[in-house]
TrEMBL record:
GO terms for biological process: amino acid metabolic process. InterPro entries: Aminotransferase_I/II_large (IPR004839), AspAT/PAT-like (IPR050596), NHTrfase_class1_PyrdxlP-BS (IPR004838), PyrdxlP-dep_Trfase (IPR015424), PyrdxlP-dep_Trfase_major (IPR015421), PyrdxlP-dep_Trfase_small (IPR015422). The keyword Transferase applies. It comes from Secundilactobacillus collinoides (Lactobacillus collinoides). This is Aminotransferase. The lineage of its organism: Bacteria, Bacillati, Bacillota, Bacilli, Lactobacillales. The keyword Transferase applies. Residues 31-388 form the Aminotransferase class I/classII large domain. Belongs to the class-I pyridoxal-phosphate-dependent aminotransferase family.
Length: 397
């Protein structure tokens, strides 16, 4: 069958591919520890599941909803964001989508013309570049060096007459770095001066550790500027990856176009998930706060696993991640020590020989790095580090 040029240039999601490979090995009876995927291992908190079950039982989940989501949910997202960011958003500034992934997809479809360039500070999340290409745009990686954070000078070097947008992700997948306020002010000044749209992916905003705080570039002003788009969702904060709930926040005019796009793309985000997300945002009654407990578990895992991975021969992380749930060690030395030629081969041999699934940094635009997700229980994490340690012992030349 004829396949479009567009489909032929798209690479499958590296993180999902690795995870599928690991799951297949597990299904074949091999004891693989999967640190390849960015998915919290906790079941969705009970109060959220209960709200979904109640919505189904009340017959509310049986029908189409508006394309950009139920009005009370859009309002709840606006209220939460106003309270977190000090903005003055209305429900009409919000479109609820099938995960943050669809929020990003709808955004690129709405803001990009063919040939428009989008700056992606590296390392960047795997789907940005492919989604930009699907919108006939051009992803432009921006090298950030060891800090993993872009400066105006680095962006300016890549800016052309076709530069339309910049994607910022903080706390960042895969490094866990967070831009501080001064860095954001500098980036905003640069973007405003050159009329560049900033798409800020804040999906890990609630996952910061050890007293670190997160500032969104959206907080630098008390109203939403024309050139700003906020992406967020329920997957990471509430452990709701399977429910597929995300959202995009922008000016009313942009949201109405995104909504028109969504009306043809997904029809509407799944109704039952919207009721679940609404309950998630309203929060839990009583003492036990499941969301805070999950956050604290991630923090403990980071604090346990970070020094262990840093101590592996040839694995180097000069700075401790501040948020999200990934480590992104530099393995240049490990490659030299083992004589393994490429990062891809290193990852593949670790999967085959040590039975630990990791992701090649090249999936995020940066060679000689690995992404290790610590969104799994501590015992498995420690076991995985033991296996990595043995792998290095056996392969150091
Ligand atoms: C940086 C980033 N943005 C967006 C997403 C999409 O999340 P979801 O579609 O589950 O809401 C992810 C998921 O891994 C992510 O890491």
């Amino acid at each position: 069958m004829h396949l479009s040029k567009r489909s032929l240039q798209i690479q499958p999601s590296a993180t999902m591919k690795t995870s599928a490979q690991a799951k297949q090995m597990i299904a074949d009876g091999i004891d693989v520890i999967n640190l390849g995927i960015g998915e919290p291992d906790f079941e969705t908190p009970q109060y959220i599941e209960d709200a979904a079950i109640n919505a189904i039982k009340a017959g509310k989940a049986s029908f189409y909803t508006p394309a950009a989501g139920l009005m009370p949910l859009r309002q709840a997202v606006a209220d939460q964001t106003n309270s977190d960011y000090g903005l003055d958003l209305s429900a009409t500034n919000v479109a609820v989508t099938t995960g943050a992934k669809m929020a990003l997809y709808a955004t690129f479809q709405t803001i990009l013309d063919p040939g428009d360039e989008v700056l992606l500070p590296d390392p960047y999340w795997v789907s940005y570049s492919e989604q930009i290409k699907l919108a006939d745009g051009v992803p432009v990686p921006v090298a950030t060096g060891n800090s993993f954070k872009a400066t105006p000078a680095q962006l300016e070097e890549k800016r052309t007459a076709h530069t339309r947008a910049l994607v910022l992700n903080s706390p960042q997948n895969p490094t866990g770095v967070i831009y501080d306020k001064d860095e954001l002010v500098a980036l905003k000044t640069w973007a405003d001066e050159h009329d560049v749209i900033v798409v800020t992916d804040d999906i890990y905003g609630n996952l910061t550790y050890n007293g670190e705080t997160f500032t969104s570039i959206a907080q630098l002003s008390d109203h939403l500027s024309d050139n700003l788009i906020i992406i967020n969702g329920a997957s990471k904060t509430y452990s709701m990856t399977g429910w597929r709930m995300g959202y995009v926040i922008a000016t009313e005019a942009t949201i109405s176009k995104i909504s028109a796009f969504l009306s043809h793309a997904t029809g509407n985000p799944t109704a039952v998930s919207q009721y679940a997300f609404l309950a998630a945002l309203k929060g839990e009654e009583g003492e036990a706060n499941a969301v805070a407990k999950m956050h604290d578990a991630f923090e403990e895992r980071l604090n346990t696993i970070f020094p262990l991975v840093n101590a592996l021969p040839g694995f180097d992380m000069p700075t401790k991640p501040q948020g999200a749930f990934y480590l992104f060690p530099d393995i240049s030395e490990a490659l030299k020590l083992t004589g393994i030629a490429t990062t891809a081969e290193f990852v593949s041999r670790i999967l085959d020989e040590a039975h630990v699934a990791l992701v090649d940094g090249n999936a995020f635009g940066v060679d000689k790095h690995l992404r290790i997700s610590y969104a799994t229980d501590l015992a498995s994490l420690k076991k995985a580090v033991d296996r990595l340690s043995k792998f290095m012992d056996q392969n150091i030349q």
